[in-house]
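Team,

Forwarding the record for the chain on the shared tracking sheet. I've put the sequence and predicted structure together so nobody has to dig through attachments.
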Amino acid sequence: MAFLAEYYLWIKALHIISVISWMAGLLYLPRLFVYHCDAEAGSAQSETFKVMERRLMKAIMTPAMLASWLFGLLLLFSGAVDFSTDHWVHVKLALVIGLSGFHMYLAGFVKKFADDKNNKPAKFFRIINEVPTLIMIGVVILAVVKPF
């Protein structure tokens, strides 16, 4: 799509902004879960965490994820990437699909906490908090270095 080429840098900037916003949420939400685990169900603190988690997911993370996908696909179809020979982009897409799945996994915990049905300990959330970081490292290396 040749018309996208003239807007490439704007699309790229919006993609980067979207990804930063999405990653901020993916890194922050499990940390909220860690502290929510220590709050007694029904307490004012627990109810505050529920609001924070819901708003983070619905107002920031999900729109940022959708924008990341939109601008990323526009970049892909702008002609800057040759999907048939730039094999790094296949791995990057697989990692982004994995990150999207992780996003949905976290959304499930937002629902569990909202219903006071979480059964995972704080340590679990401390560990899974590292998942988006590891995926992000892979995505950035692939996008910048383009190793294959």
